Amino acid sequence: MGDGQTLPGVDLDNTGTIDDGTLARTEVPPPGPIALDSGSGAARPSPASIAERVVSFARRQRGDRVGDGQCFALADRALRHAEAKSARDYGAISPDADYVWGAAVTLSELRPGDVIQFRDYSYDREIVIERSDETVTREDSQMRPHHTAIVQSVDGNGAVTVLEQNSPDGSPVVRTQLFFSSGTTTSGNTTTTVSVHGTFWFYRPEAR
Fold first, then answer.
1. pTM for this structure?
2. What is the extent of the structural domain holding 154?
3. CB atoms near residue 14 (< 10 Å)
4. Does a structural domain hold residue 32?
């Protein structure tokens, strides 16, 4: 889902994170039924306000575990803190569900505060550096079998920095750069190739 080239990215707090947290696909499923707006006269938070509060909450948790430590708990509490609907407002919750977190958006529309749901996601990255005396090749990969993460920043060309927990299993909240489009880019003597697999959905939180 989504296209474009990719930029080099790294696990920003730890290297080699692998998540057993939550699972995903490539087409966005239709969101479940949306609850009716509250009849109270209170002003609803704006999308920009929701996004700012979601990211701010998640950033403050870095290095700590939120709730039961599952990836779901971080997103759920961040959205509730921001007075936004959570996955429970869109359908039944089960350990292996493909959770819906708001209105579906595309990679090109993605912005900080959005939520990503993963199913059998992985990427493989190869960086080839051509030097006058040698060619250096570096490789890395990451997996998110079933996972949920919050967008901290959209870095361009399919690279996104997320805030997440339980990646790897039992880890606290960390920042990680992931990739959501396959492609090859060349800058100077460095060529980077990224291959993305599996399914993922992008959601924009909605006011409760």
1. 0.80
2. 47-204
3. 14
4. no
Strand partners for 163: 150, 175
For residue 80, what are the CA distances in angstroms to 18, 160, 177, 185? 26, 23, 25, 39
Residue 132 lies in a domain: yes
Q: Is residue 192 part of a domain?
A: yes
Whether the per-residue pLDDT at 35 is higher than 70: the answer is no
Cα separation of 193 and 109, whole Å?
Answer: 23
Question: Is residue 150 in some structural domain?
Answer: yes
What is the tally of structural domains in the chain? 1
Q: Among all chains, which residue has been given the structure tokens 């996601």?
A: 121
Query: Residue 56: which residues within 8 A CB-CB, separation 6 or more?
Result: none
Q: What is the pLDDT, as a whole number, of residue 111?
A: 98
